[in-house]
Specification:
mainly alpha; 3 helices
Length: about 70
Amino acid sequence: MDDILRYIYEKEDVEFRTRRGMFDNQKDITEKMRAILIDWLVDVHKKFRLRMETLFHCCQILDKYLISNNISR
């Protein structure tokens, strides 16, 4: 069991971590704004009783979008 959990944690760390410096290219969007958006997504997730995977994928898509695009207010 410990081997399985270790493997999952290692895989999660590589695939799903937020990249450092993600907001270096952003002029208007801050980490605090991302946190507010994630809090809102969690509320929506709870309201519609979605699966946890849906929330995780949504956050991952959001992060990839923020990394690849410069967003203005």
